[in-house]
Amino acid sequence: ENDRKYHSDHLVQTISAYRFMDIENPAQVVNQLRTAWTPYGVRGRIYVAKEGINAQFAVPLITLNEFTEAVAKPYPQLSENASQEERDALYYETPKEIRGIFFNKDTQVSHKESAFEDLRIKERHKVLQDGLDDAVIAQMEWTERNGIEMNAEDWHQHLVEKQQGKSDIVILDCRNKYESEVGIFDGAIPLDTDTFRETWDWLEEQLKDTDKDAKILTYCTGGIRCVKMGAYMEQKMGFKNVYRLKGGIISYSRMLREKQIQDQSTFKGVNFVFDLRIGERLSSDVLAHCDTCGVKCDVQTDCANVKCSRPFNKRLFVQCPECAARMQGCCSPECVEQLQASLKFGSNPPSKIAGLAKKGTLQESIDSSRPIPVHTTSLSTSGAEENASGPNTIYTTSSMTYAESVSNQNDIEDNVLKELAAETQRLLPGRAHMISGQVQGQMLHSLVKMSKAMTVLELGTFTGYSALCMASALPNDSSSRLISVELDREVLDIARSFAAKSSYGYRIEFVEASCMDALKMLHERGMKFDMVFLDANKKQYQEYYDMLLDMDLVRKDGWILADNVLFRGEVEKVASGESDYYLEDEFSDVSALDPEALSLKKQLHIRRSRSMRTARKIAEALHEFNEYVAKDPRTDKVLLPIRDGLTLIRRR
Question: pTM above the 0.85 mark?
Fold first, then answer.
C-alpha cells in the first residue's frame, strides 16, 4: 500500500515541525510515532529528545487530509476501567506529545523529487545541537521567554517599514554563513557562523553595546533555531523585545505564494533548505559569486572529489556551471587531479597522471578554456594526437601557442588587446578564461571582413575583447557600427575604458541591458544586422535565435555566430546519452545498504554533483538549440568543433 502511495509521479507535501517540551520517555515516543505514521506513507527524518521533537518529512497528498486530522484531534482519554485492548490501541495513535503541533508546510513536489526515501525516527540527546554547556542549559527554559512569535504578514510589514526608513529594528539572521550568503532578508545582519554552536559567542560580542530595550527580530529557515536563540537573548542576556518569525523563511515564502505578492519579497535570493532541493528561490537577486571565477552565481555544491581536504563544515561552495564543467565539479586543481586519477586508474595512477600538477598541464587546462583531461572532445585541430595516444589524450598548449604565433591581422591593435587581456587577468583572475582570446578574436575579425558586414550585434560583451576585434574589421564608413550588449556593469566599465583607448572604439555602442530587453529595443529602433555574435546566456540561445529571425533583426544572407555550442564537451555527452559518474544512479544495489546509510549517501551524492547537474542542464539546452537550428529551414548552418564550438548560421 505504501508503494502505491509513493508512485514516482504522485505529489507529496513537504512539512517541517518542532516542539520544545519535556518528554519523559523519548524511546517510547519514537516507537509509537513509527507505528502510527507508517500507514500514512510518511517519509522523512524525525528526532526525539527529552527537550522536544524536531521533524522534516513528506506526506502523500492522497493521505494528507486523513493524516493531518489524526494529528490535530485530541489524544484519546481512557477511563480508569478501560480494557487492556483499549490501552493497547493507544500504541497505534499519534503520541500525545505531537498532538496539535504546527505543521509548517513547504512546497509540494513529486515523489521522485522528494528529499526523503524512508521514515527515520531516532532518539537523540538534543533535537538541536547547540554546543551549550550543561551548566548554561540548566539555567535555560526553552518553552518560555524565548521570543514572541510574529506571523509572516506582520514580519513583512515590519521589514517594509524598515526599508522605508520608518523603523530602526534590528534583524538577525540566525543561520550559518553558507545559508545567508545566497539569500537574506533586506537589512538583516548575518551571524556568519559555520555552525549553530558559534551563535552564542557572536551574540555576546556583537550585541554587548545594544540597548536591552531594542526591538530585535530573528529568523531562520523553519523557526527552531530562533527558539533557542530567543531564549538565550531574553534569559541569559536580558533583552526585552525579542521577536521571531513563526515558521521561518519557509512560512514567509508560503505567505508570498498564497497572497501572490512574490514580486514584493523582502527576502532576497535563495532560501537554503536542508533537503535535496538545496535551495528555493524567493527573488531574482543573485547575491553570491562563484568561488572559482567570481561571476554572480548562487549554485551551492560540494566538491566532486570525495577525498577533498576542505574541512567538513566548509565543504559547500558556490560554483557556476561554466566552472563546474571546466573543473569537473571540483573546488581546486588538486581535487581535479585526484578525481580523474581515481576514476581512470583506481588507487594506483600511472606516473604520467600523478605528475600532471607538477608539470602544469592540468593547471593550464583549468585556467584556460581548453578541455581538461578524461573527457576529450573534437576540439583538437587534428586526429594525430588521439591516434597516437588513444581517446583520452591530455591536450597541451603547444598547438594553440603555434597557432597564435603564425596568425596575424594587420589592422588588429595587438597592443590594446594584450593590455585588455592583462587587465582582465588582473581584475578578474577567476573569469579571465571567458575572454575570446587571440586566435578566436582574429577569426571573428576575419569573418566580419569576409562577410563585408557593415552592422554587427554582439550579445555578451564581457570585457570587450571580441568587440574590439570585430570593430576593427568594419569598413571605414560612417554607417558601420557594432552594438554590444552586456548586463554586468563591472565588466562593461572595463570594456568601455578600453574602447576609449582604441582607434576603433568610436564604432562601438555599448548597451547595458538584458539581451531580451535589448533585442526588443533594437527591433523598435528598426535595426537590421549583417552579423550577430551570440555569447550570452546559453540556456536562452534558442530564444535569442528566434527573436533575431522573427523580429527581422538579421538581414537576408546575414550571419549568426553562436559560441560555446559544445560547452566543454558536455553537449556531446548529452547527445550520445553518456552519463558522468556523478550523474549516474549509484543506488541499484540498495540491499547492501541500510536505509539510513542510503539516505545519507544520496544526500551527499546530490549535493556533490549539484554544480555539474546545473552544467548538464546548460549542455542539454545547447543540444536542443543545436538540433533546433539544424532542422530550421530558415537558415543554413555549420558547427565548427574549434575551441568550445562555434556555429556559423546564415539566414537564407
Answer: no
